[in-house]
Amino acid sequence: MMGPKKEAQAALFYEFCLEDHVPADHLLRSIDRFVDLVDIREHLVPFYSQIGRPSIAPELMIRMLLVGYIMGIRSERRLCEEVHLNLAYRWFCRLDLGDAVPDHSTFSKNRHGRFRESDLFRQMFESVVARCIEEGLASGQRLAVDASLIEADNNRQNSSQIAEWTPDMTDPQTAPRAVREYLETLDDAAFGAATPVKPKFNSHSDPASQWTAARKGPAFFAYSNNYLIDTDNAIILDVEATRSVRQAELGALQTMLDRTDNRFDIQPERIIADTAYGTGPLLEWLVQQRGIAPHIPVVEKSGRTDGTFETSDFAYDDQKDIYICPARKELKQRRRAFTNPRTPQPDEHGVLRYRASKAECDACQLKSKCCPKAPQRKVTRSVHEPSRDVARKIYQTINYSISCKLRKKVEMLFAHLKRILKLDRLRLRGPCGVRDEFHLAATAQNLRKLAKLVPDQSQTA
Ligand code: SF4
Q: Residue 364 CA: which ligand 1 atom is closest?
């Protein structure tokens, strides 16, 4: 039998409880257990005026931002619409059915003001990391690091070659916020002072972003998102925004390791990274200063492709500070005998040079396999070679093979960030805006992990 046609009729009174309409297994319900915003009001008091019209409640702003990053809603306009329409989002934001959702323009304006000055997003990220450690999800023993390019919110058309646009052409008084932030970070090792090499193009709307072709495709403007993760459960222990240049990313690792040590008293047993991090100075810092085992491939620049002997074919004698060649001859830094012996100094790149005797090479039967085009053979040695040797020894162990698999976890986090949370292109400009976005996204990823791995006792009871 066909049912009667139903027309919607506005009732005079409704009895409706949001709590009853959010499924017990909804992601936001699981995450809500770990969102603790008790202290933020006190933290934000100095950043609000004592007079004037009341602002949007900071708790509501934070909860709405979390919904946006957790559910991959990138547009602020759409986020406001979704919170208005979606019952679960309303419940998470502590809004009742009749409560008004902030207008998207008011929401955007509030977001750029006080939260940034108060460093609230950093605090919130650290409180979630502390909760992960408390729940036993991160032991802090095996950490992995990597950086991923995130496209900046600008384009090639609004840029010019470096000679046509320099910071001193800009008036800080009238410049947009992203340009002012760029001028403030010119001496920052993560941004302006990362490298003396000038990029090919400078963006006018977001000059701190880096013009890069690192993805081997068409070049674009980008920032680097640096993650330091615990490989037990892929918890993000620290996050740092930098320019997309190698030097800035290496500096970010040192910053993040120092910060996790100070903040959470974490001294890892090993650090896992790809070849980009295998430079001599960084390995030296890890091994000698921090006592951390580097599970990192060493950057080798002395490899040969013409079939002649490689540096590894020469044995180093640390007692005599000489190399022994395959013909059992000695390669030394100095062959002349000085009356007052001089200590050899490395060059500006920290490289020492060892030379064979020309007479011995000329008479050697292996010369065609050793130095066919040079009068004698030279071998270089970095001042960081002992630390590089530590990394090379680890490279041959079974633990290193395990570390290679663990390193995939940080790559998967970046894939999740871009595909599920849709942060493949930034919405905010300037170093501060980028920092905010990365902190919120990392907080969202950690909250999702907590919700997945920590069972809800009230559901299991
Ligand atoms: S060519 Fe010179 S450095 Fe090379 S194996 Fe012969 S003696 Fe040694």
A: 6
Rounded Cα–Cα distance for residues 245 and 217 (Å):
17
Indicate which residue's Cα is closest to atom 5 of ligand 1.
Answer: 327
Q: Please, which contacts does 211-219 make with residues 24 or more away whose CB atoms are closer than 8 Å? A: 211/159, 212/149, 212/244, 214/149, 214/244, 215/149
CA–centroid distance, 395 to ligand 1, in Å, is 29
- The 10s digit of each residue's pLDDT in 259-273 is 999 999 999 999 999
| pLDDT tens-digit map of 178-227 | 777 777 777 777 777 777 777 777 888 888 888 888 777 788 889 999 99
Longest dimension (CA), the chain: 115
Q: Which of 188, 185, 184 is nearest to 251 (CA)?
A: 188
Q: Is the dihedral of CA 65, 69, 73, 76 positive or negative?
A: positive
| Paired residues of 323 in beta bridges | 316, 331
**Residue 249 burial (C-beta neighbours within 10 Å; 0-12, 13-18, 19+):** buried
CA distance 361 to 321: 20
Cα dihedral: 185, 190, 196, 202 (round 10): -60
Contact 181, 436 (CB under 8 A): no
Q: Is 299 in the pocket of ligand 1 (CB under 6 A)?
A: no
What's the per-residue H, E or C state across 92-155? Answer: HCCCCCCCCCCCHHHHHHHHHCHHHHHCHHHHHHHHHHHHHHHCCCCCCCEEEEEEEEEECCCC
C-beta 364 within 6 A of ligand 1: yes
Which residue CA neighbors atom 4 of ligand 1 most closely?
Answer: 370
Q: What's this model's pTM, rounded to 2 decimal places?
A: 0.88
pLDDT at 162 over 80: no
pLDDT of 410 > 90? The answer is yes
Q: What is the pLDDT of residue 460?
A: 59
